[in-house]
Amino acid sequence: MHLVEKYCDIVKLLHNLLQNVHHAGQPMPGEEQKDIVITSTQKNLLNMKCPLTGKHVTELQNPVRWMDCKHIYEKEPVIHYISTKKPHPRCPVAGCPKILQVGRVVCDALLTIEIDEMCLASATNINSTMVEEFYRS
């Protein structure tokens, strides 16, 4: 081994030792790992079915969310429910003490995204199940 190669090896060794002393457990500069974070909003849906119609949230024509308790309804039935259960219509989800008001029932942009993600996840799960069953047979 040449003297220059030995010198380079010693420098690398010293660099590694210094790195371990000052930055133990962290990657060396240039060796950083990039974390990929996958998030989903699917868990934000509190109820999977409209408590008034019994329809799954993916089947609702006009889904709305009650802003105070975050439960999801079909728009027309919940508006009708609020107007007929005067003076203080309670949320029909068992155990929810919130009082419904027409102005607090909205279709926010996040709700439609959450429902779309749920539909996509269901379709993906069905496709993967079909592939697994195909390979088993």
TrEMBL record:
It comes from the Eukaryota. It is found in: Nucleus. Signal peptide: none annotated. One of its GO terms (cellular component) is nucleus. Keywords: Metal-binding, Nucleus, Transferase, Ubl conjugation pathway, Zinc, Zinc-finger. Pathway: Protein modification; protein sumoylation. Residues 32-120 form the SP-RING-type domain. Its main location: nucleus. It holds the Pfam family zf-Nse. Belongs to the NSE2 family. This is SP-RING-type domain-containing protein. It comes from Zingiber officinale.
